[in-house]
Amino acid sequence: MDILLLIVGLALILVGANYLTDGASALAQRLRMPEFLIGLTIVAIGTSMPEMVVSVLSSINEQSEMAIGNVVGSNLFNGFVILGFCAVIRPILFTKNNVRFDIPFSVAASLLLILLALDTLVGTGATDSISRIDGAIMLALYIALMIYTIRTAERPEKSETTKKPMAVWLMALMIIGGLCGLIFGGELFLDKATVIARSMGVPDSVIAITLVAGGTSLPELASSAFSLIKGKADMALGNVIGSNIFNVLGILGVASLINPLTMGNIIPFDLLVVLLSSVLIFLSAFTFRRHALDRTEGILFLALYAGYIYLLIQ
After folding, report:
1. Is 245 within a domain?
2. Which CATH number is 92's domain given?
3. Is the pTM of this model over 0.85?
4. Whose CA is closest to 46, among 197, 138, 176, 155?
5. Do 262 and 128 contact (CB within 8 A), yes or no?
6. Is residue 29 part of a domain?
7. Which residue, 125, 178, 212, 279, shows the most beta carbons closer than 10 Å to its own?
8. CA neighbor of 248 nearest in space, from 226, 271, 230, 225
9. Distances in whole angstroms, Cα of residue 158 to Cα of each of 17, 41, 97
10. Number of structural domains found in the chain
């Protein structure tokens, strides 16, 4: 039964990703907004709801390590695994705006997390933690970023094709239904995969590092892969970059407003690897003489993630 439900969860993820991609693309066409922006906002926030739920509930239950570790693990999975996997499928081209603004802001968000969380390292406190003031700063920055991004987005030229836009009700149904399929399918898949792993004798520490972080990021993985396969690389990139920014500034911002978050067993190395993943995405725009994340870099990203996991379970 667990294996059957695991397959059902995977099916929900795949179907949900397909409908979400089509619905979000239709929304971008109707609003004449770049697909990257739709990925950065609606798709990124929607697919990050599992992380939001885990971190907020962890904060309410005063489980700070789970709240922070969930975001750290998800961002590493997004940056190394999802982008790496997508780049292996098809190289991801970066726009000038991606290189000048979007990706650097993701780097800045990772750096801000280090500065706010590692109080003993930067000399601002005796305990490594994210305070309520830190959370308010992070949340305010995220809201300001979204307002600025939406206001300054370049609208694509109006299409001259006679293709009739998708009906609003159908578009909304596909987006909402797709998100529900991704989130519920991801939760079902994660739950049953954990049960199966435990029955096989896999330690809980390994399950937490791999399945929990990867499980809550399954919506991002599925939606990004489907977007890329359908030729919508901008939406795939926007989903990952947007999710990483939302995870740090939005989710940790909200979670730390509920209760201050202490680092506990989350060590500086973990946050530095998160920063490294953002920096490597930025640097990949300047390799091989074109602004793109190529297959070679995608393989490197996957290898770096495997190496990080290996170090953690030693």
Report:
1. yes
2. 1.20.1420.30
3. no
4. 176
5. yes
6. no
7. 178
8. 271
9. 27, 22, 20
10. 1
Q: What span, in angstroms and rounded, lies between the C-alpha atoms of 303 and 270?
A: 17
Please provide residue 146's backbone torsions phi and psi, each rounded to the nearest 5 degrees: -65, -40
Contact (Cβ atoms closer than 8 angstroms) between residue 20 and residue 179: yes
Domain extent, residue 218, equals: 34-150+202-313
Decide if 76 is inside a domain.
Answer: yes
SS3 labels along the chain: CHHHHHHHHHHHHHHHHHHHHHHHHHHHHHHCCCHHHHHHHHHHHHHCHHHHHHHHHHHHCCCHHHHHHHHHHHHHHHHHHHHHHHHHHCCEECCHHHHHHHHHHHHHHHHHHHHHHCHHHHCCCCCCEECHHHHHHHHHHHHHHHHHHHHHCCCCCCCCCCCCCCCHHHHHHHHHHHHHHHHHHHHHHHHHHHHHHHHCCCCHHHHHHHHHHHHHCHHHHHHHHHHHHCCCHHHHHHHHHHHHHHHHHHHHHHHHHHCCEECCCCCHHHHHHHHHHHHHHHHHHHCCCCCEECHHHHHHHHHHHHHHHHHHHC
Cα distances from 82 to residues 92, 236, 237, in angstroms, run: 12, 9, 10
Are residues 253 and 112 in contact, defined by beta-carbon separation less than 8 angstroms? no
Q: What single-letter amino acid sits at 250?
A: G
| pLDDT tens, N- to C-terminus, the chain (314 residues) | 766 876 677 677 667 766 776 777 777 777 777 777 877 777 777 777 777 777 787 788 887 887 888 788 889 999 999 999 989 988 888 888 888 888 999 999 999 999 998 888 777 766 888 999 999 999 999 999 888 887 877 666 655 444 577 788 888 888 888 778 767 776 776 677 667 767 777 655 456 556 666 666 777 777 788 778 877 778 788 888 988 999 999 999 999 999 999 887 788 888 999 999 999 999 988 886 678 888 999 999 999 999 998 887 76
281 within 8 A of 159, measured Cβ to Cβ: no
